[in-house]
Amino acid sequence: MPEAEKAENAQPSAREMIAPWVEELTHHLEIDEVEVDIDALLKLAGEAAHTVVRPAAPVTTFLIGYVTGLAEASGQADYQKALSAASDVTRRLLERRSQATG
After folding, report:
1. What is the CB-side half-sphere exposure of residue 85 using CA atoms within 13 A?
2. What is the mean pLDDT of the chain?
């Protein structure tokens, strides 16, 4: 099969499909200004799914978002610092859990 034909038949990656959805969703949630690091969230979700159990992925990302919003709204930290702190706590817990079971 010629390369041009392969390219035409190639399906978009999950990342390519998620990006427009995130843009649409943040617009309708009226948080267009929020930068969403899709790759970082997917990585954490994947770690939670593989370390805990698959349904832990969406719950984990929800909790990270929730605590980030609380910290920002209360003035404890700006968005980026709050997200980084919540993500770091999550990574450490997943790593500890992985080492305990591995």
Report:
1. 14
2. 91
